[in-house]
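Entry, Tuesday afternoon. Goal for today is a structural model of the target with adenosine-5'-triphosphate bound, before we commit to ordering more compound. Inputs were pasted exactly as handed over by J.K., no edits. I checked the ligand SMILES twice against the vendor sheet because last time a stereocentre got dropped in transcription.
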Amino acid sequence: MRWINTKPSRATQIALMLAPFLLLIVAYGVTSAARLADNPADKLLPALQTLIDAINRMAFQPDPRTGEYLLWSDTGASLVRLFSALGISTLIALFFGMVIGMLPYVRALLAPFVATISMVPPLALLPILFIVLGLGETSKITLIVIGVAPAMIRDLALKVLELPREQIIKAETLGGSSWQIALRVVLPQVLPRLITCLRLQLGPAWLFLIAAEAISSDSGLGYRIFLVRRYLSMDIIFPYVLWITLLAVITNFALDRLRIAVFPWSNLEAR
Amino acid sequence: MRWINTKPSRATQIALMLAPFLLLIVAYGVTSAARLADNPADKLLPALQTLIDAINRMAFQPDPRTGEYLLWSDTGASLVRLFSALGISTLIALFFGMVIGMLPYVRALLAPFVATISMVPPLALLPILFIVLGLGETSKITLIVIGVAPAMIRDLALKVLELPREQIIKAETLGGSSWQIALRVVLPQVLPRLITCLRLQLGPAWLFLIAAEAISSDSGLGYRIFLVRRYLSMDIIFPYVLWITLLAVITNFALDRLRIAVFPWSNLEAR
Amino acid sequence: MSEIVLDKVWKEYGDQIVLEKISLTIASRAFVALVGPSGCGKTTFLKMLLGEEAPTQGGITLDGVPLIAEPGPDRGVVFQRYSVFPHLTVLGNVLLGKVFKRSPIAARLFGAERRAAIDEAMTLIAEVGLNGSETKYPAQLSGGMQQRLALAQALIMKPKVLLLDEPFGALDPGIRAEIHVLMKRLWHETELTVVMVTHDMREAFTLGTRVIAFERPRDRPEERERYGAVLSRDIDIWPPRIAGENSIFAPDRDDPVIPLGLRQDDPAPQGDILP
Amino acid sequence: MSEIVLDKVWKEYGDQIVLEKISLTIASRAFVALVGPSGCGKTTFLKMLLGEEAPTQGGITLDGVPLIAEPGPDRGVVFQRYSVFPHLTVLGNVLLGKVFKRSPIAARLFGAERRAAIDEAMTLIAEVGLNGSETKYPAQLSGGMQQRLALAQALIMKPKVLLLDEPFGALDPGIRAEIHVLMKRLWHETELTVVMVTHDMREAFTLGTRVIAFERPRDRPEERERYGAVLSRDIDIWPPRIAGENSIFAPDRDDPVIPLGLRQDDPAPQGDILP
Amino acid sequence: QAQAKTNFKVAWSIYVGWMPWGYASDTGIVKKWADKYGITIEVTQFNDYVESMNQYTAGAYDAVTLTNMDGLSIPAAGGVDTTAVIIGDFSNGNDAVILKDKTSLADIKGQPVNLVEFSVSHYLLARALESAGMSERDVNVVNTSDPDMVGAFQTPDVTAMVTWNPMVSEILALPSATNVFDSTKIPGEIIDMMVANTDVLKDNPNFGKALAGIWYDTMAVMTADTPEGAAARTAMGVASGTDLAGFEAQLAATKLFDKPADAVAFTSSPDLATTMDKVRTFLFDKGLLGSGAPSADVIGIELPDGKVLGDAANVKLRFTDEYMSAAAAGTL
Ligand SMILES: Nc1ncnc2c1ncn2[C@@H]1O[C@H](COP(=O)(O)OP(=O)(O)OP(=O)(O)O)[C@@H](O)[C@H]1O
Ligand SMILES: Nc1ncnc2c1ncn2[C@@H]1O[C@H](COP(=O)(O)OP(=O)(O)OP(=O)(O)O)[C@@H](O)[C@H]1O
Ligand SMILES: [Mg+2]
Ligand SMILES: [Mg+2]
């Protein structure tokens, strides 16, 4: 039988799925033990117990200074920023994506500009952003929006343009005005795509969040990572990184479920 | 006539296209003049002449310390890193994307792992990267690869899976082995997609390049930006940011031309 | 009344001449079948009737008035694909035209107005044989059912003219035969002038009152750009079909062959569609 | 010789029974036309013959030997779509089978071997009427030409069995008629047993030596899962068609109707395809 | 530009000598003094030191914590007339040149040296090389970001590094690291201070007084050998990402001026002029006083006694003991 035709059984499949994760954990354990045997004070790859202690300290014991549970207050602060920024980006992308996609004049005006803007490395513009917007939440959220929105606008405008011309003509023959067509034909069809497009931007959004928090902040997951990086406190960095990854995976999954729940037809289409 | 049906003429289109760029330049000029009137030594928004002086200094006069033309040596250093990293990512993505997409066993093994990995914020892993790989070019290139390759692998594996099952069956009835099908049926069809996928990753790649150069380097566009950021030398930062944007736009365009030139059939398909 | 008159219409795209000097009068309530080889400009012709494209030269009038240069509710259309909205249910698709008419800003109907519109839509849905499928999405319908839906959706606007661009080209022959029956009934019962593009001669002669063929007189590759297609044949069907009347000569000559009794237009089973 | 024997074949997907107890002997060089409503399992049946799916119960033999459980060069196939490779030219598509056979590692041919293979491919390309289009990509061909290409591509392997899944379902009737002629000629001239799925009764009776229908005896929605389709009709065409021989009774009864003289299978003009 | 106003913004970044600002803000000391003068002071913590100075230079903040060298090269060279309100401490071992597997400064020759380019580390390196009769040409400087120093030191290709605390103590804890030169060898040359915009200060002297009041109040708490003092130090340690022991180790390498009188004495001593001259020469050599600067004299530095170092017509950095003296005299 050809390799491309051999299929693992359900059980094998699960075993295979878990294998690389287990391997990673084992590899970590072995390397960590070796390094610690060499130098018991080594901080790069802390022992499992050290990691658990750190998690316990960050997540379940109040910070002596503020009385807060740091992991949760950091998570809260970061998620508020992340979701505000993603919310704003989504609205911006929806509006500009739709007008660029639908109106030839606006397309001529903005499409090349947005395409260029989306190539500007946002990190390089950070100082200006902070000066113009101050250091509060605004500038952090704005950085994420700047980093994420242009790509979303382009993607969405493209989706609008990809709607079969036939559909628009049909809507016109049903007497639809530009506004009505936008509202009832284009909008509902790009909304599910908007969610997909949002999912694609989760990675970059986290990146910009961490970058923004690294510069000025007093809480947040990225802040904490950069703060303790000076001490190479990998016992805190590792759990934080895992936690961020987990949050990203969950968000990604939840958004997809949301799409299917709200727009059932978008999944019928798929095939 | 409905708004969605009004189309600008060719000339209007060009005028509209240029408008936001001109507006941006004018807005810059005005704000800059106002700030400079306030404080002639203001560095945030340098006058046009200052920018030109800086460009001239960086691009056309040798650096007194090293005798190099900084803009060009920085560009060279950055592009070498960027393209090596993108080249490596492409090869990795091609290999893993194809095996994940074609072989059910490998898919069960690696697909969930790659999906998870692609959610890890790479910047947070920098310290480990350094210690494992040292501070040289390797770690910078690796950062970009880590940041860019998982997304490319996923994208490409998806493309392989999207190939109509009929094509694979047909190839089997032509007597193709797994290897022959990979080589002659799957590979050529995913290559153009690989280029598209590479274009999508240009933005993130530049981002990671700048981040890596900010951390440890002695040349490169990102290095220079972060070095002079210490002095708020926006007269250097702005031209550098524009230059990066321009390089990204050109690369993006060139890759698309390359795809059409090498895989003419991939453009026939589009419609 | 809905007479369409084309007066020396030319259409060019850039340097390429697509249609040359088409003059044509389409009588009210005619059913024109338009045939011709691929790329000869049939769709382009239909787009001009729709108002989606403007003639490069010449003029088109509908009932003596120059055509509005945009698609509008007086002209309905059904394409081969993409004629229904995938995000709306069958009922939602048929309602849409009513909604657009009554609710310019919110584009939604409520209360009694909505109930009245639904009643009207349901009648039409039953008319095209889709009763029972009101809450389904187009992706849950077979190709034939989708085209029935597209017809119902267009007809709720009571257009003067119905333009069809290979509406049944993607259907299997059995399904096609069934929908021909429906199409003919609708044409008989509704105040409609129909222009239908088709590749299928049999279809053209089964449904049309008049068959028109476009053809390029010069079609060598090097001539393609320089010469467009012209109206090469214009055949009135005899004995004439008249809207609303049975053919006196052979009342059932137009019946489709019903194949072997297999119900080919059954909705595909759910399991096939849901991923 | 290529006789296919199915012995009490059942096929289930999970809990859903698709085909029930199909027993059938397909004679060597038969041309079986398989019809049945949508979703009744025709494609599934073909996939089992291909080796792409295994029967849940029962066995299939080809010339007395159990079928290899994977598609292979002894069984050719043409689908409704996606049967040719978009990234290869016409010549490349037809060559591919030869290349796979001769060059297991590099999957490319060079020198004399390549020239020999090209000669063979060119003959076949001419056979299906695609000479002149050797360097074109499938996207530059019309639908009919693409299916001709798919036939040529399959035939270069000289398969014992040719499996066709609605191969002409997406074609316009005119083009379909032309390709029927080709199909019949190929069947007469090549050592082939053909099994063709079709929705078109006319096509089934025009081409087949034997028409087989699948049907679900119980087809209410709540029964769909629990009962599969069975072989409901099995008609031998009379007077019999025999591979390689003209019908003695009506030598030309199988000729397609040639429509109005429009060349419907012309390649679409380049301007239409290039964006 | 500046006028009498009541809202002030102060930026500080995480460093041992500046942690008191965060503590003062958290515990209400800032509010106490602001209320006293009828003003409000918003204290903002930066994770990134450079960004805090840039923000100040661009006018977004009225006061910022920085070192004497950065004060001259960033706000002053950027045209913002800046006054050092409080001299908080000087580095007394907080900055160090560290070699891997080598034990003497002379071994640095020919090696790549990882440091934050153009920072005080760079200055320390220059002074270290000078002390050993070498110059920067004898080494190869590699710019490396400060949070990554600890990780970077453990990589094979890094053999020499100049950095500051807390990274120094983390690195020195590694078995292969040796401190070959540190700021104890150049006492008083790396000064950490709180500076404010001169115009703002001139129009709002109460702002300066409030800053001084906050600082010395906080000093009193944190240096006290009482449970409250230990609690304050613990809090600062935790806020900077370490614990009490780690923070006290850093404090030990810092000459903190917890008594205003000591700070006044340091500021008024003639050594300050010598130090600033060295610093400006270093900056000029590196081209950091502006690209067209003809000489190190281009920017004037005013000392507490009114003497000016450099161009008296372009004074942009001013040292004064006014506010610290007031604190010493108890007249705030
Ligand atoms: N928007 C356009 N811009 C330029 N050329 C066009 C455009 N639309 C159509 N054409 C050209 O006009 C000619 C006629 O196209 P049209 O789509 O009307 O043909 P058709 O008769 O409908 O063909 P088919 O039977 O394949 O649908 C073709 O050569 C096509 O390339
Ligand atoms: N891979 C599969 N997994 C589960 N069910 C399947 C699978 N493939 C087909 N089926 C189910 O088997 C039944 C028969 O499908 P099949 O594609 O063979 O029908 P068909 O007769 O070819 O229909 P059509 O005329 O629409 O092509 C359908 O109910 C379908 O949902
Ligand atoms: Mg057409
Ligand atoms: Mg099928």
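Residues 175 and 265 of chain D are 6 Å apart (CA to CA).
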